[in-house]
DNA sequence: AAATGCATGTAATTGGTTACATGATTTC
DNA sequence: GAAATCATGTAACCAATTACATGCATTT
């Protein structure tokens, strides 16, 4: 039940229609949230009956009317309370990592293909994000003003960027590891002509230490 | 609809009860998946009617009976197909990042408190994970064998670890940035006695470059 | 005496996705 | 001529969470 906070948060800054909110979700906020119009519209109605927001109709020519929402004092109270409330531990669902986890069921070539493909998908996302940052950065430099608003949204943006950068790097390093350990997938890996354990161990240790110190014997 | 694949993936390795599956989700697999028993049991029944798994009852003394599930050939086909299918772009929901995004609504002190608190939560998770890695690592070294199964699950573990490490680092660096820009939250920030724009700009540039090159003019 | 673990499930509710419905304007 | 954008919504369906229900054994 955090959709309401996503909406109230946005409305604490600007008045907006359901359609505007959806665009904001898909654009900047996509780093941490998403939703469908068919969920946003009913939620806005609920918020209105709870008197956390108000709306007014704005007729337009050639286009459908707009229903512009504004936040109320009650809404402001709700959102500030929520922002200051204890953060929850995120419950992750990363279906790609799950695929990786079960990739001993497919061939090495398929494994490498999947990792490369996903790396590409992530790279595309990163490129798009970089454009967003550059635009945001440009407008900040033009306006010559820094505000808490700008600061905190930049922090979120940076987090989004580095998340992509890191996932891409992980793909790269994992591809390398899999390629080095290719022979483990051989059907007759029991004949230990393939990859001696010690070698695999060293490769794995290097792979782990590239990201994080294991700090044990 | 990926819960079915989480279950089938596990059953492609060992026979298990719904209760076992839940424990595996909460333990190792928590890096990328989670679910409730009340969702797992019905899903297992569905999988059985679709003949992707079979079950047998094992009576026990003093404890309730066990319903142990095994994967069928059809189930194996389903899971291998899925593992090799095009990965989907993850739709993130990170409510903490959303809180951060809207933290211009609360005081600097509260902002710093929230970031520190969350850093602690993540640190705890990291510590737990490190124990898991060390145990896994120990048993690998004892058995002196490396398999695709072990390799791919280690890759996922490393991803989980580095995710935590990085989030913690981000918290740290963001706390530093916020502390350096504290005066922006002053009510009379209009009097530009507070933090000159150029200084803020430099701090921000440093903050971004610590994680990712902006590579523009 | 109370809480946790083992082990199964159902029922009710909320959250989220996909499909349907409308209709003018602009871009490809 | 088709697709996308603007702008609102409803209905049906699927996924996920919370609550309810049972019951014995062990740990605190």
TrEMBL record, chains A, B:
Span of domain Transcription regulator PadR C-terminal: 92-178
Domain Transcription regulator PadR N-terminal: 7-80
Pfam family membership, one: Vir_act_alpha_C
Domain of life of the source: Bacteria
Name the UniProt record assigns to this protein: PadR family transcriptional regulator
Source species: Sporosarcina quadrami
